[in-house]
């Protein structure tokens, strides 16, 4: 799988990481996350996709990243290049709240529920 799939039938885990950041540093944080995804995570076994969202008030960046499984995610956290990325991002963000989740349901206005 090489694309974001939001479905309760997908055998994936999702990291939802909400970063709090000073508004004047939101772009810097989003750029750092973009770079890390391109330069580090795309080559990490088990990584599927990442989607970055920036809040309209400038105070948050949300990373919605999918992994093949919890074990692959945990292995990634032990990698030196991943730990370096985490340190760089933590230096920009005021706080972050990483949470591993599974998709429970999906609803579309004009479509079937998944």
What does this structure look like?
The protein is built from three helices and four strands, in the order E-H-E-E-H-H-E. By secondary structure, it is an alpha+beta fold. The protein has a four-stranded antiparallel beta sheet.
Give the arrangement of secondary structure elements.
Elements: E1 13-20, H1 26-39, E2 47-54, E3 60-67, H2 70-77, H3 80-92, E4 95-101
Antiparallel strand pairs: 1-3, 1-4, 2-3
Helix pairs in contact: 1-3
Quaternary class: single chain
Helix proportion range: 25-40%
Compressed to H and E, one letter per element, the order equals EHEEHHE
Instruction: Report the principal-axis shape.
Output: globular
Physical arrangement of strands within the biggest beta sheet: 2-3-1-4
Mean pLDDT, all residues: 93
Beta-strand content = 25-35%
Distance between the termini: 18 Å
Largest sheet: 4 strands, antiparallel
Low-pLDDT residue intervals, each spanning 5 or more residues: none
Features:
114 residues; alpha+beta; 4-stranded antiparallel beta sheet; 4 strands; 27% strand; globular
Would you summarize the structure shown here?
This protein is α+β, with helices and mostly antiparallel strands.
């Amino acid at each position: 799988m090489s694309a974001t799939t939001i479905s309760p039938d997908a055998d994936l885990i999702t990291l939802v990481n909400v970063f709090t950041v000073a508004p004047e540093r939101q772009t810097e944080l989003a750029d750092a996350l973009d770079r890390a995804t391109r330069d580090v995570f795309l080559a990490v076994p088990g990584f599927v996709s990442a989607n970055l969202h920036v809040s309209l008030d400038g105070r948050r960046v949300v990373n919605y990243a999918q992994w093949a499984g919890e074990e692959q995610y945990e292995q990634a956290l032990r990698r030196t290049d991943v730990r370096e990325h985490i340190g760089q991002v933590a230096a920009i963000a005021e706080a972050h709240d990483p949470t591993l989740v599974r998709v429970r349901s999906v609803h579309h206005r004009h479509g079937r529920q998944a």
